[in-house]
């Protein structure tokens, strides 16, 4: 047998290798066709200064006077593009901690604001949340508010990213100053 003649019973592997490589290349090419990117949605932002409210019982401001320490810890939701604009649906999430002066029940307010629409009423909505700790000894409760639905009429010439949405706890001037003096 010479070096140039194939071994009897064995076929040259080059055509099979080429076929395997061709098939792999075609399959890889299929993965290069990616779906279009998801549509742009407005940013939802939580400012640190309004992400916390400390409620005191009475006029004292000592740690023993804290009734509740409530924090806006996040949100979950989605957005969809419709014929009318961009529709967002989301749930705001909070953590309430009972302080030494706190009872079993509490309440707070939070806002959803779109500065682009301020000062019109459609620029800000304030929502009320009531809560109850699961039992008298529970030091905290995690809360998920009801679904919030927002429709933003975004003209075709603009991007939804030009309409940021802000979430925050509705604070009195004293509560806002407390947060500035006692940052997280």
Structure report:
This protein has 184 residues and is an alpha+beta fold. The chain has two helices and nine strands; from the N terminus they run αβββββββββα. It has one domain: Immunoglobulin-like (Sandwich). Strands 2, 3, 4, 7 and 8 form a five-stranded antiparallel beta sheet that branches. It starts with 13 loop residues before the first helix and ends with a helix. The N terminus is likely disordered.
Question: What characteristics describe this protein?
Answer:
184 residues, Immunoglobulin-like, 5-stranded antiparallel beta sheet, 4-stranded mixed beta sheet
What sequence of helices (H) and strands (E) makes up the elements?
Answer: HEEEEEEEEEH
CATH domain class name: Mainly Beta
Ends apart, CA distance between termini: 84 Å
Query: What's the CATH architecture name?
Result: Sandwich
CATH topology title: Immunoglobulin-like
User: What portion of residues is helical?
Assistant: 10-25%
| Overall geometric form | elongated
Number of helices: 2
Q: Estimate nothing, just give the exact number of structural domains.
A: 1
Strand content: 35-45%
Class derived from helix and strand content:
alpha+beta
- Largest β-sheet summary: 5 strands, antiparallel
Low-confidence stretches: 1-27
Compute the average pLDDT: 85
**Computed CA radius of gyration, to the nearest angstrom:** 29 Å
């Amino acid at each position: 047998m010479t070096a140039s003649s194939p071994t009897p019973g064995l076929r040259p592997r080059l055509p099979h290798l080429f076929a395997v490589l061709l098939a792999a290349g075609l399959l890889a090419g299929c993965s290069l066709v990616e779906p279009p990117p998801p549509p742009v949605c407005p940013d939802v932002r939580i400012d640190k200064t309004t992400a916390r409210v400390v409620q005191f019982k009475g006029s004292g401001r000592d740690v023993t006077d804290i009734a509740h320490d409530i924090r806006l810890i996040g949100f979950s939701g989605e957005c969809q593009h419709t014929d009318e604009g961009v529709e967002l649906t989301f749930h705001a999430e909070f953590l309430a901690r009972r302080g030494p002066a706190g009872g079993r029940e509490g309440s707070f307010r939070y806002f959803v604001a779109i500065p682009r629409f301020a000062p019109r009423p459609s620029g800000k909505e304030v929502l009320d949340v009531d809560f109850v700790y699961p039992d008298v000894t529970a030091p905290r409760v995690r809360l998920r508010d009801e679904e919030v639905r927002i429709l933003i009429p975004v003209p075709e010439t603009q991007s939804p990213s030009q309409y940021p949405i802000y979430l925050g706890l509705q604070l009195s001037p004293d509560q806002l100053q407390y947060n500035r003096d006692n940052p997280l």
